[in-house]
Amino acid sequence: MASSFFALFDDIATMLDDVATMTKVAVKKTAGVLGDDLALNAEQVTGVQPDRELPVVWAVAKGSLVNKAILVPSALLISAFAPILITPLLMLGGAYLCFEGAEKLMHGGGGHSEKLKEAIADPKVDLVAFEMGKIKGAIRTDFVLSAEIVAITLDTVADKGVADQAMVLTAIALLITVGVYGLVGGIVKLDDLGLHLKGMDGEGLLTKGQRWIGFLLIQAAPLLLKTLSFVGTIAMFLVGGGILVHGVGPLAEFIQNLSEGASEVGALGWLLGPLASPLANGVVGLVAGALLVLGIGLLPKKREEAQEA
After folding, report:
1. 45-52, long-range: CB < 8 A, 24+ apart
2. Quick one: which H or E segment has residue 83?
3. How far apart are CA 12 and CA 255, in angstroms?
């Protein structure tokens, strides 16, 4: 009886170890989307009144958990009954990421913060409704990015059993939510921490050091948000383009051959080899995104032309 118990315990430990390993692999594959998720959510909260920043982050985090509570079972059902849909859904999400990245580049993202400041300064604006609108918008964005992360994770464990898939997907969903929104909460309060440290009284060496750190934090906070936004945009093309390439066999094979060829270019092969594939994926993502933005931009014109005719 005791031996059976310990055998069962050993099996459970082995299974959990396998799940942990698969979860690590899934985290690596979704890292680009996670960076994008972090950047976009940090940007969404920018402009909210300081005392409402953390409540807004918490509200979006709860919405994100609801999103994942919908997405994880849906992904398991697709895997069980229609696995053929995984690749098309991945490509659809990849195309969306490319579109978002291209739209940011072509239409610019700098006006976003200015509009927020104008809305907050306008006494006619209902700040409660404004805040709710931001929360809903952030939750919608989270749904798309979470769907992409869940799809990538599902593709990673597609050959595993349902129990393993469920545990890995659940682990990823919880890790992503806690990690992303924990970091977002820390980032949006970074300037407040800087102000607190900068305003400390005293002439001691420790207090002077704290004021200096506070000054650095105040200077670093906006730079960090801009950097995250830039990195998030790059990640959209790299991840989205990579997903599109993965779904088109001949293109994936061509880029693989390109990468292998680049690795054999003299003394620079060690550098060009690893870079060739991501750069090619990024170019594919940029081109696909630009075409989607231009194509969608023509739709209203076509409707207007049809109405005039």
Report:
1. 45/134, 45/138, 45/184, 45/188, 46/113, 46/116, 46/188, 46/225, 47/113, 47/116, 47/117, 47/119, 47/120, 47/134, 48/116, 48/131, 48/134, 49/120, 49/127, 50/192, 52/131
2. none
3. 41
Say if residues 79 and 165 touch (Cβ distance below 8 Å).
yes
Q: What is the pLDDT of residues 208-243, one digit of tens each?
A: 888 898 888 888 877 887 787 777 778 778 888 988
| CA torsion through residues 49, 55, 58, 64, sign | negative
Specify the residue for token string 């990579």: 242
CA-to-CA dists, residue 89 to 19, 20, 26, 160, 193, angstroms: 24, 25, 17, 19, 42
**CB-based contacts of 194, cutoff 8 Å, min separation 6:** 213, 214, 215, 216, 217, 218, 219, 220, 221
104-122 tens-digit pLDDT:
888 765 444 455 555 555 5
Per-residue model confidence as pLDDT tens digits over 37-69: 666 666 666 556 667 777 888 888 899 899 999
pTM over 0.85: no
Tokens of 71: 């997405």
**At a CB cut-off of 8 Å and minimum separation 6, what does 178 contact?**
none
DSSP 265: S
